[in-house]
Amino acid sequence: MTLHEEFFMLAKVFPIQLKPGNQAVAEEIVREFAPLGPGVEEGTLSFRVYRHPANPDYLLFVEHFANQEAYDAHTGSAAYQELVAGRFADLIVEFVEHDHELLVSL
After folding, report:
1. Alpha-carbon Rg of the chain, whole angstroms?
2. Which fold would CATH assign to domain 10-100?
3. Strands (E), 19-101
4. Parallel/antiparallel/unpaired status of strands 44-52 and 98-101
5. All residues at 6 or more sequence positions from 77 whose CB lies less than 8 Å from its CB, including other chains
6. Mind listing the pLDDT tens digit for each residue in 14-65?
7. pLDDT confidence bin for 97, thresholds 50/70/90
8. Which of 3, 10, 38, 41 has its CA 20 to 30 A from that of 61?
9. Residue 63, Cβ neighbours under 10 Å: how many?
């Protein structure tokens, strides 16, 4: 196993602009999803969602996965399909997906 393979981690960052007035509903869906999806997925290493106090109708998702297969399992789960691809997706104006690989970790 190479050093890259040993410490590989796929990081996904999603800045998400919500339709106006949907912050509370979006946060409720995220809170419902977290223990049902990321909370039980073996390859999901972390799942964090941030809100910006001065920027309403915006969420920032920062997620870490063991590998691409773990991310695919995450997005293919029943909880993801129902809550994120289903209900949450209806609240989104737009989002951009940024993939990152771990460079340094202390």
Report:
1. 14
2. Alpha-Beta Plaits (3.30.70)
3. 44-52, 55-65, 92-95, 98-101
4. unpaired
5. 37, 41
6. 999 999 999 999 999 999 999 999 999 999 999 999 999 999 999 999 999 9
7. confident
8. 3
9. 18
Q: Residue 105's pLDDT is what?
A: 75
Distance from C-alpha of 51 to C-alpha of 69, rounded to nearest angstrom: 28
For residue 106, pLDDT beyond 90: no
Dihedral angle, C-alpha 55, 25, 11, 1, nearest 10 ° = 160
What is the number of other CB atoms lying within 10 angstroms of the CB of residue 78? 9
Q: Where are the domains of the chain?
A: 10-100
**CA 95 to CA 80: how far, in whole Å?**
16
In whole angstroms, give the CA distance from residue 105 to residue 59. Answer: 25
Alpha-carbon span 85 to 26, nearest angstrom: 12
